[in-house]
Design goal:
- The chain is of the alpha/beta class.
- It is built from six helices and ten strands.
- It has one domain: 3-Layer(aba) Sandwich (Aminopeptidase).
- Helices cover 33% and strands 23% of the residues.
- Helix 1 crosses helix 6 and helix 3 packs parallel to helix 5.
- The relative contact order is 0.22.
């Protein structure tokens, strides 16, 4: 079995992006941390280019599990994204200068897709390791959400593929080596295909 993990190039004036640093490091230690081969792919922070790059990697490697990673500033926790929505509403331009507003990710697509990852199982495992983690109910409306939505739209026609999206914090908030262990935990939960525990992870706001 093959696992595919993606991360993004830097954006917004940053020199690095921990989502890519984490994906790359996990690929280097895949056999050690998850027991399977892990392939990492670096995505452009562009609406036009992110999904085609990920889709090409999915078709080339035919993975069993895909975990797409993105950066969420302003948090110190691993965010297990629950839902992707069919809207693009860019607060800032992407790295190609595009800033679409109120456009669908996929014209005629459903309003939303649920993650295909075992979020509650991963959350429980992360809490056991005392790694800060939450189940998030919004992946935003930028390139991360668009990539997540495209991935889940693709997964509808790929039976057996377990896929989803995880946001990671900045390296200052949570060191990359901890992020690597966290994403490895998510991957192991997906590979195991275990039943989801009845674990509360809702939000009040």
């Amino acid at each position: 079995m093959t696992v595919l993990v993606s991360g993004f190039e830097p954006f917004g004036g940053d020199d690095t992006n921990p989502s890519w640093e984490t994906a790359r490091a996990l690929a280097e230690r895949g056999r050690e941390l998850v027991g399977d081969d892990v392939v990492a792919v670096r995505l452009p922070v562009t609406f036009a280019g992110a999904w085609p790059a990920l889709e090409a990697a999915v078709r080339e490697h035919e993975p069993t599990v895909v975990v797409a990673l993105g950066l969420a500033g302003g948090t110190d926790a691993i965010r297990l994204e629950r839902v992707a929505i069919d809207v693009v509403d860019a607060r800032i331009p992407d790295n190609a200068g595009a800033a679409p507003v109120d456009e669908p990710v996929v014209g005629g697509g459903p309003a939303a897709y649920w993650s295909g990852l075992p979020l509650k199982g991963a959350l429980a495992a992360l809490r056991e390791q005392e790694i800060p983690a939450v189940v998030s109910n919004t992946a935003g409306t930028y390139v991360c959400n668009a990539t997540f939505y495209h991935l889940m739209h693709h997964a509808q026609g790929a039976p057996g593929l377990r896929a989803g999206f995880v946001h990671v914090p900045t390296a200052d908030a949570l060191p990359v080596d901890v992020q690597v262990r966290a994403v490895a935990t998510v991957v192991r939960a997906a590979l195991a295909g275990e039943r989801e525990p009845a674990l509360a992870a809702g939000a009040e706001d």
